[in-house]
Amino acid sequence: MLLELKEIEAGYGKKSVLFGLSMNVKEGQMMALVGPNGAGKTTTLRVIAGQIHPNRGSVLFRGKDISQMMPHLVAQNGVSLVPQGSRVFTSLTVYENLEMGGFQIKDSNEFRESLEGIYRLFPVLEERKSQWAGTLSGGEQQMLAIGRGLMSRPKLLLLDEPSTGLAPKVLHELMKTIVAVKEKMNTSILIVEQNVNEVLKVADEAYVMKLGRIVCYEQCAETLLYDDKLRKAYLS
Amino acid sequence: MVLQIIVNGIVAGALYVLSGLSFGLIYTSTGVFHFANVAAYTIGGFVFFQMSVVWGLPFPLALAIGLAAASVLGILIEWICYKPLREQQASSLQIFLTSIGVTFVLQNIYLLIWRSDPRVVPVFESLLDGRQIGPVRVTHLQFVIIGVVAALWGILHLFMTRTRTGKAIRAFAADPDVAALMGIDTRRLRIIVFAIGSALIAAVAQLQIMDLGIDMTSGFDVVIIGTIAALLGGRWGITGIALVSLLIGIIENAGMIMLAVQWKYIILFGLVIILLYLRPKAIFGTKDR
């Protein structure tokens, strides 16, 4: 198992958000995490990335408990979080953003290979490499954020609502690219997404979350689109 | 006459450039309104004096020890005063007030050690000689000051745009949480920023103690003006801070001939208030973009 969350209880100060959440992500898998607003999806990703330390429970990544680790150490262990709303470094150039994504790489050949891989995935980033990241369009910034997150060649990529602010057509392309990332770069993916239709079509498995708990686990993500478990979670 | 005023203004402004860069570097990246830079200024100047004049150490060694003392002090202030507050989610106002408190505690400790007399580190006679260029007279020491400031400005610029650590500091300034997600150890960056920033302000003290001399209160003047320059020019980066600092130096020198010295702060803070009133977010606009 690549990632195991066991009985996680976490929150912000006195406000609890996750109540005994458990979930697993396997190697080479694209796992979708869906659920209504306020379910705690973003909080789950932040716990994995080390931005929030859980009050109880453990986060095992390749067998090692990372639940109390600082975020930069979690990143150095091979977990990369692409936060909601892309959050590129607007006052750095596109190239410098990617450089920061590859901050942990010490070897210059390895760095160049990583960079070329990202440019193949998102050719537009190479065209704009010396532009300020703040001048990119919303879709381009999202590509840059994902490219930046992939520079370190993580074992696990966490994507938090990559569709935010994207036109439907751009989103469709982006989902295809994410699938390509999984297949070509040998990266497992845990993706949180509001746009359930798009993400369940491409994900392998899926969890449905509600009020800080997993309410449903489906080994074939797409079937969720056709039964009423998902609808129930959103409605009731 | 006008040219002479401009030249003197540039020399004074050059020192404000360093002060502004010091404050700007620390404020944009760590978010700390580091008033205690005054204490780093004083220790930088007075340790240099102690080493060079009192203990007779060679000049370059005394300079280096003074800079190192200021850097260590800056790091200690970050570790002992700011870090615990930040970990308890203190507001930036609370951290600012702590910074002021630390300044006065340290300044009074210095007073116990060094007393309040002004100090000058004497330099070679030839440095005080001047050169007449047309109607303008410039001393060799003034050339040295401008040269040192220009060199430090250039080094800082290259550091921030060409090195991995410098770029990481800019990324950290843009978004500290996301910088950590890149695997960047942000605690280490803060320490580097405080070390560099404190050394920059100490360099101002060392140049001034060789030129006109300094006393316990000199740091306040330089730090406040540097802060204003950084606040006004910060949105245009290092270059903006440098230009505004030079401008303040020139205005100050011109003003002293036309107006009484007391007007200096009235005019400077007046400018800040007007700017804030017109565009509250104008200060360090990069953060709000």
CATH-defined fold name of chain B: ABC transporter involved in vitamin B12 uptake, BtuC
User: Largest sheet of chain A at a glance?
Assistant: 6 strands, mixed
Q: By CATH's scheme, which homologous superfamily of chain A applies?
A: P-loop containing nucleotide triphosphate hydrolases
SSE pattern of chain A, N- to C-terminal: EEEHEEHEHHHHEHEHEEH
Present the secondary structure layout.
The complex is a heterodimer of chains A (236) and B (289).
Chain A: E1 3-12, E2 15-25, E3 30-34, H1 41-49, E4 56-61, E5 64-65, H2 71-76, E6 79-82, H3 94-101, H4 108-121, H5 123-127, H6 138-150, E7 156-160, H7 168-185, E8 188-192, H8 196-202, E9 205-210, E10 213-218, H9 229-235
Parallel strand pairs in A: 3-8, 3-9, 6-7, 7-8
Antiparallel strand pairs in A: 1-2, 1-4, 4-5, 9-10
Helix pairs in contact in A: 3-6
Chain B: H1 2-30, H2 37-54, H3 59-87, H4 92-114, H5 125-128, E1 130-133, E2 136-139, H6 140-162, H7 164-174, H8 176-181, H9 186-211, H10 218-233, H11 237-258, H12 263-278
Antiparallel strand pairs in B: 1-2
Helix pairs in contact in B: 1-6, 1-9, 1-10, 1-11, 2-3, 2-4, 2-9, 2-10, 3-4, 3-9, 6-7, 6-9, 7-9, 10-11, 10-12
Q: What are the main properties of this structure?
A:
heterodimer, A: 236 residues, alpha/beta, Rossmann fold, six-stranded mixed beta sheet, four-stranded antiparallel beta sheet, 37% helix, 25% strand, B: 289 residues, mainly alpha, ABC transporter involved in vitamin B12 uptake, BtuC, two-stranded antiparallel ribbon, 12 helices, 77% helix, 3% strand, disordered C terminus
Task: Give an overview of the whole structure.
The complex is a heterodimer of chains A (236) and B (289). Chain A has 236 residues and is an alpha/beta fold. Chain A has a single domain, classed as P-loop containing nucleotide triphosphate hydrolases (Rossmann fold), CATH 3.40.50. Chain A has 9 helices and 10 strands. Chain A has helices at 41-49, 71-76, 94-101, 108-121, 123-127, 138-150, 168-185, 196-202, 229-235, and strands at residues 3-12, 15-25, 30-34, 56-61, 64-65, 79-82, 156-160, 188-192, 205-210, 213-218. In chain A, the strands form 2 sheets. Chain A has a 6-stranded mixed sheet, with helices on both faces. In chain A, strand 4 (56-61) and strand 5 (64-65) form a beta hairpin. The radius of gyration of chain A is 17 Å and the shape is globular. The two termini of chain A are 33 Å apart. The model of chain A has no long low-confidence stretch (mean pLDDT 93). The longest helix of chain B is centred in the N-terminal third of the chain and has 29 residues, at 2-30. In chain B, strand 1 (130-133) and strand 2 form a beta hairpin. Chain B has helices spanning 2-30, 37-54, 59-87, 92-114, 125-128, 140-162, 164-174, 176-181, 186-211, 218-233, 237-258, 263-278, and strands at 130-133, 136-139. Chain B starts with a helix and ends in an 11-residue tail after the last helix. The radius of gyration of chain B is 19 Å and the shape is globular. By secondary structure, chain B is mainly alpha-helical. Chain B has a two-stranded antiparallel sheet with strand order 1-2. Chain B has one domain: ABC transporter involved in vitamin B12 uptake, BtuC, CATH 1.10.3470. Chain B has 12 helices and 2 strands; from the N terminus they run H-H-H-H-H-E-E-H-H-H-H-H-H-H. Helices cover 77% and strands 3% of the residues of chain B.
